[in-house]
Amino acid sequence: MALEWVVLGYAAGAEAIMLLLLTVPGFDPLRKGLLSVTRSLLRPFLSIIPFCLFLLMDIYWKYETRPTCESAESCTPSEHLRHQKSIMKSQRNALLIAAALIFYWLLYSVTGLVVRIEQLNKRIEKIKAQD
């Protein structure tokens, strides 16, 4: 299961870097090439959504089937520590899922806005050339 979380982490990181490069001012020559790369990667990155849902169901299943340590006598200290670590990992993984989904949504929205800005800039240049 660790490989799945690594893949999700790398995908979220790639989304964050592309989002950062698209929104930072001053990278106009780089932005045009990055925009075409980002637009071509949006469809493959769409697979992150069902992947995140699968991983969220995995967290839920682990939550439902975890051992309960209701009293101090029912669990040894090592079992209690393992239970606490499991909860911390599940919380971390849930944050990673949320970050990946939010970054995808932001990347999709920002890419659409940048494309629209490029189209409007071309219209303005065309109108200026006619005058």
UniProtKB/TrEMBL annotation:
Bilayer topology reads: Multi-pass membrane protein
- Give any single GO term for biological process: intracellular protein transport
For this protein, the parts annotated as crossing the membrane are 6-24, 45-63, 94-115
User: InterPro entries this protein is in?
Assistant: BAP29/BAP31
Name a single GO cellular component: endoplasmic reticulum membrane
Keyword DNA-binding attributed: no
Protein keywords: Endoplasmic reticulum, ER-Golgi transport, Membrane, Protein transport, Transmembrane, Transmembrane helix, Transport
- The principal localisation class reads endoplasmic reticulum
Compartments, record wording: Endoplasmic reticulum membrane
What function does the entry list? May play a role in anterograde transport of membrane proteins from the endoplasmic reticulum to the Golgi.
Family label: Belongs to the BCAP29/BCAP31 family.
Protein name as it appears in the record: Endoplasmic reticulum transmembrane protein
